[in-house]
Design brief:
The chain is α+β, with helices and mostly antiparallel strands. It folds into two domains: 324 residues, no CATH class; 100 residues, no CATH class. Helices cover 55% and strands 8% of the residues. It has 17 helices and four strands. Strands 2-1-3-4 form a four-stranded antiparallel sheet. A hairpin with a 5-residue loop joins strand 1 and strand 2. Helix 2 runs antiparallel to helix 6, helix 8 runs antiparallel to helix 15 and helix 9 packs antiparallel against helix 11.
């Protein structure tokens, strides 16, 4: 009778729910790291160190590794192997630690190419999981068993995950208000933000929402309220389930109208899911009854939770510092993109002008055949000085030659190539207008 009562205590239910949350996050984070392009393109990037000149703040220790293509491929194999083990939950914590340490320097190579990719939260989660009981259920480690540790050992890392999400969302919203005020949410600015993304992706959404200013203003205010309110929502038990629901709506909207999917973030919402609503199987209930007396008497030992608390506290502290600073050009801990500044109806881009020895001129951007990826746009902004650093002549040369290949333009030997930064109108009706205010950044001559 006592065992039956213990099985249904709130502590037992919370323990099972948090154990499932950690297990689900283990599976999702492992899968996201394994399928990401940053992992698989690392050996190719390591083969071209001349393209890896931009070291974000905080990543110097990773740049000092100077990975060779062979070393990068070796780390990739280790990451794939350990990732498969962590997916299956075989030596879960050791596998997750190995995945974190092997994949982190590989992801860093993509940051060194000029555009900071804000997927560093994957390593916040993976590092925390390596120090948490993430393999007690839904794993080979926990086969035939049920979660039987002290409830706090599961609850602490889950609570830290909630704090990670809160910091990720809060500071972008805060900086929007501090820099632009509620004007950020006004219809003209929301429309300008959408037009800029549509221009970058060279496509239009299924609904031209820019034709409904009231709807744009409503969406802008909803973004601010969501970003600022996510942390309070996820912290209060009664609204905890509401937070990921609103988050999914937010990310659906940004994907539909800004073409920003951010799957690597919202997929991690599994740790926020209401796992307590999932009914255990009859076999699981039987095992829980067998362990009820033991589980109810477990106390949390300091040594079991201290590593996760120290790691989570360190990451949160650094993330808060970066968030207060609004430092988004850092890695692996940074403020997530704020989009805080009021932007206009133009976007900077690089224009290449090639003049042959006979005097014939041709101008191109490299976007003629296909749009750039967001990482490529980030590199363009970096090397052109948009982010504040001085234009890099060698990087501009590499970009010009690559843009010519993308545009399928053959450059004759002896041609003079000039690289300009110019402004392009982002309103869809003006996409084919000539660029405005070109500024010469670099000029070079091809060898004969």
């Amino acid at each position: 009778m006592l065992g039956h009562i213990a099985t249904h205590t709130p502590e037992t239910g919370a323990r099972a729910a948090d154990a499932r949350a950690l297990a689900a996050l283990r599976v999702v984070v492992s899968a996201l790291i394994l399928v990401s392009p940053e992992l698989h393109q690392a050996p190719q990037l390591a083969a071209h160190p001349e393209l890896l000149e931009f070291v974000p703040e905080g990543a110097s220790f990773l740049a000092a590794l100077h990975l060779t293509p062979h070393a990068a491929e070796t780390l990739r194999v280790i990451a794939l192997s350990s990732g498969a083990l962590s997916l299956l939950g075989f030596y879960s914590r050791a596998a997750m630690a190995c995945l974190t340490l092997s994949a982190l320097p590989l992801y860093a190579l993509s940051q060194f190419s000029g555009a900071v990719m804000h997927d560093m939260h994957l390593f916040w989660f993976s590092g925390l999981l390596a120090l948490s009981p993430c393999g007690d259920v839904w794993s080979l480690d926990g086969w035939g068993q049920s979660a039987s540790r002290a409830a706090r050992e599961y609850a602490l890392p889950v609570g830290i995950c909630r704090a990670f999400f809160g910091v990720i969302y809060f500071f972008p919203g805060l900086h929007k208000l501090l820099e632009s005020g509620w004007e950020w949410a006004a219809a003209p600015h929301v429309i300008a933000q959408m037009h800029a993304k549509w221009f970058e992706y060279a496509q239009l959404p299924w609904l031209r929402v820019d034709r409904y200013p009231w709807l744009c203003a409503l969406g802008g205010h909803a973004v601010l309220l969501f970003e600022l309110g996510f942390l309070p929502l996820v912290s209060w038990r009664k609204t905890r389930t509401l937070a990921p629901c609103l988050g999914l709506g937010f990310h659906w909207s940004t994907q539909a109208f800004l073409f920003i999917p951010f799957v690597s973030l919202w997929a991690c919402y599994v740790v926020l899911a209401p796992w307590h609503l999932l009914r255990p199987s009859s076999a699981s209930r039987a095992r829980t009854r067998e362990n009820a007396h033991t589980a109810s008497g477990i106390t949390t030992r300091v040594g079991t939770t201290l590593p996760a608390v120290v790691f989570g506290g360190a990451v949160l502290s650094l993330a808060i510092v970066q968030g207060v600073r609004g430092q988004s050009q850092a890695w692996p801990i940074a403020c997530y993109p704020t989009f805080a500044a009021i932007i206009g109806d133009t976007l900077p881009d690089l224009v290449i002008e090639a003049e042959s020895p006979s005097g014939q001129k041709v101008s191109f951007t490299g976007r003629e055949r296909a749009p750039r990826s967001q990482a490529e746009w980030g590199r363009v902004f970096r090397i052109s000085g948009v982010y504040g650093s001085p234009p890099n002549a060698r990087a501009l040369r590499e970009h010009a030659l690559d843009a010519a290949r993308r545009a399928e333009i053959s450059l004759a030997p002896g041609s003079t190539v000039r690289v300009y930064r110019a402004s392009f109108a982002t309103a869809p009706e003006l996409w084919h207008s000539p660029p405005q205010a070109p500024l010469l950044l670099s000029s070079f001559e091809l060898e004969r």
